[in-house]
C-alpha cells in the first residue's frame, strides 16, 4: 500500500509539472534559469533510474524474462500508462501527420533502441553496456556534423577518436564468462543501441517544438508497443516469471524488480527526459548518460553483477576524456 501511495504522489507531482505553463510553455526569460535547473534535476533523476534499470534488467534477463519479451512488456506497460496519463493532461491537439510521425518514431526508433539494448545487456555485463551507452554524446555530435552541418574541429575529432578507441578496447578485450555468456555480441548490440537512442534524442527534441510531452510519449510508446506485440507474436513469448505466476508460483523478488523497472526507468524516467530536451542542448542531455555509467558501475560491483577490470577502467577513462574534448574543451574557447 505504501508503494502505491508513493507512486500516486510521484505521478501526481509530474502531472502538475507538465500541466504547468511555467515549465513547458512559459516564455518569460526571467524563469529560464529556473527551468534549466529543473531540466538538469529532471535529467539527474531520470539517469539515476536508468542506471538502476541496467542492474534490474541484468537480474531479470534471461532467467525470468526473455529479452524480446521484456521489450514488449516495457513498451506495452508504458503505452498504457501514458495513454491513461493523457486523460488527465490537456494538451494541444495534433495533426494526423504528427501522429503518424510519432507512431513511426516509436515503432522503429524507440523499439529499435530497446530491442538492441535489452538483447545486448542479456549477453554482456551491466558495466560494459553502460560504457557503450555513454557514447551517446559522440553519436549526437557525429550526426550533427554529417546531417546538421555542425563544424568539426580538431579537438572534437581527437575526442571522437578517443571515444571509439575506448569502445574498441572494451569490445576486443572482454571475453565471455559466467557473467557475460556472449560479450562480443552483447557489446556490439549495446553500441548500436546507443547510436539509435542518439537519433531518437535528436528527433524527439525537434518534435517537442510542435507537440506536448504526454502526447508525444503516448504515441511513441504506442508505436513501440505495436511493433513489440508483432515481433513477440512471431518469435514467441519467453516469460518464465509470468508462466510460473499463471501456475500459482509467485517469485516475489523478481516481481518487485520488474515492478521497479516498469514504473521508474520505463515510465517516470521517460517522462522526465523531455524536460531536459525542452531546455537543454541535445548533447548536454546525452552527456547525462555518464551518470548511468557511474550508478551502474557502483551497483554492479556491489551486487557482484560485474568484476573490476583494468581494461574496462581504461575504456571508461578514454570515453570520458573523449567527451571532454568533444563538448567541454570546445565550449571553453
Concise account of the structure shown:
The chain is an all-alpha fold. Helices cover 79% and strands 0% of the residues. It is a multi-pass membrane protein.
What are its keywords?
single chain, AA-Vitamin_Transporters, 0% strand, 15 helices, 333 residues, mainly alpha, transmembrane, 79% helix, transmembrane helix, cell membrane
Written description of the protein model:
Helix 3 packs antiparallel against helix 12. The longest helix has 29 residues, at 32-60. The chain contains 15 helices and no strands. It is globular, with a radius of gyration of 20 Å. The chain has 333 residues and is an all-alpha fold. 49% of the residues are buried. Helix content is 79%, strand content 0%. Residues 13-26 have low confidence and may be disordered. It has one domain (31-331).
Proportion of residues in β-strands: under 5%
Tell me the number of helical segments per DSSP (H or I, 4 or more residues long): 15
On the 0 to 100 scale, the average pLDDT is 85
Shape: globular
Write the layout of secondary structure elements.
Layout: H1 2-19, H2 21-24, H3 32-60, H4 67-86, H5 96-121, H6 126-133, H7 136-147, H8 154-173, H9 183-207, H10 213-235, H11 240-246, H12 252-279, H13 282-287, H14 289-303, H15 310-331
Helix pairs in contact: 3-12, 3-14, 4-5, 4-10, 4-12, 5-9, 5-10, 6-9, 6-14, 7-9, 8-9, 8-15
Amino acid at each position: 500500500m505504501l508503494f502505491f501511495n508513493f507512486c500516486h504522489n510521484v505521478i501526481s507531482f509530474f502531472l502538475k509539472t507538465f500541466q504547468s505553463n511555467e515549465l513547458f510553455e512559459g516564455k518569460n526569460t526571467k524563469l529560464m534559469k529556473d527551468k534549466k535547473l529543473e531540466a538538469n534535476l529532471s535529467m539527474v533523476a531520470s539517469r539515476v533510474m536508468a542506471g538502476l534499470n541496467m542492474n534490474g534488467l541484468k537480474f531479470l534477463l534471461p532467467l525470468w524474462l526473455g529479452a524480446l519479451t521484456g521489450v514488449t512488456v516495457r513498451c506495452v506497460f508504458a503505452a498504457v500508462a501514458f495513454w491513461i496519463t493523457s486523460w488527465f493532461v490537456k494538451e494541444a491537439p495534433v495533426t494526423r501527420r504528427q501522429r503518424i510521425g510519432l507512431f513511426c518514431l516509436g515503432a522503429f526508433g524507440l523499439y529499435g533502441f530497446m530491442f538492441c539494448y535489452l538483447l545486448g545487456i542479456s549477453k554482456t555485463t551491466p558495466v560494459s553496456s553502460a560504457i557503450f551507452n555513454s557514447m551517446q554524446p559522440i553519436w549526437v555530435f557525429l550526426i550533427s556534423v554529417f546531417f546538421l552541418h555542425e563544424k568539426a574541429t580538431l579537438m572534437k575529432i581527437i575526442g571522437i577518436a578517443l571515444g571509439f578507441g575506448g569502445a574498441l578496447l572494451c569490445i576486443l578485450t572482454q571475453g565471455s564468462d559466467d557473467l557475460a555468456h556472449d560479450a562480443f555480441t552483447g557489446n556490439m548490440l549495446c553500441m548500436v543501441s546507443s547510436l539509435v537512442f542518439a537519433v531518437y534524442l535528436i528527433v524527439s527534441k525537434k518534435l517537442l517544438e510542435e507537440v506536448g510531452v504526454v502526447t508525444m510519449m503516448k504515441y511513441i510508446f504506442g508505436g513501440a508497443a505495436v511493433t513489440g506485440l508483432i515481433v513477440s507474436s512471431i518469435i514467441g513469448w519467453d516469460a518464465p516469471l509470468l508462466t510460473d505466476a499463471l501456475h500459482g508460483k509467485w517469485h516475489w523478488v523478481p516481481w518487485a524488480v520488474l515492478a521497479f523497472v516498469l514504473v521508474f526507468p520505463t515510465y517516470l524516467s521517460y517522462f522526465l527526459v523531455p524536460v531536459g530536451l525542452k531546455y537543454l542542448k541535445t548533447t548536454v542531455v546525452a552527456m547525462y548518460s555518464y551518470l548511468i555509467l557511474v550508478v551502474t558501475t557502483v551497483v554492479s560491483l556491489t551486487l557482484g553483477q560485474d568484476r573490476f577490470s583494468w581494461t574496462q577502467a581504461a575504456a571508461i577513462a578514454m570515453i570520458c576524456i573523449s567527451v571532454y574534448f568533444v563538448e567541454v574543451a570546445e565550449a571553453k574557447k
